[in-house]
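Below is how a single chain appears once it has passed through the pipeline. First comes the sequence as given, then the structure the pipeline wrote out for it. We keep one example in the README because the format questions we get most often are answered faster by looking than by reading.
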Amino acid sequence: EVRIVESGGGLVQAGGSLRLSCTASGFTFDDYTIGWFRQAPGKEREGVSCISSSEGSTYYADSVKGRFTISGDFAKNTVYLQMNSLKPEDTAVYYCKARSAGWRHDYWGQGTQVTVSS
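Resulting structure:
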C-alpha cells in the first residue's frame, strides 16, 4: 500500500521551532519531487517548500525563506522540514506531497497541524 505519513506538528510559541517529517511507504522517493504545502482555515492551500530527490535542488516560498529548511534522508525515504522562528501566520495544516518524474504519480499525506501562538 502506498502511503505518505507526516509527523512532528504541534503547538509552539512564536519564535519557536518544529521539525516536520514526511515518510513514504509502499514506494521510494527515487526520482520524485517532494513538497510541503500548508492550508490555513479559510485560505487556499499554498506551496511552502520542495526538494528534488534526484538533483537535491530546493525551493522555498518567499514567506518562509531564511526560516525553514527542507532536507531529505532518502535512504530512509523521509523528507524533513525544519521550521525556525515560527510566526502565528505559519499556523496551518501542513501536507506532504510526492510527485514522480513526468508527473505520473501524486501522493499526498493526511496532514499535520502546526499551531503557533503569539
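The longest strand covers residues 92-100.

See the next section for the split statistics.
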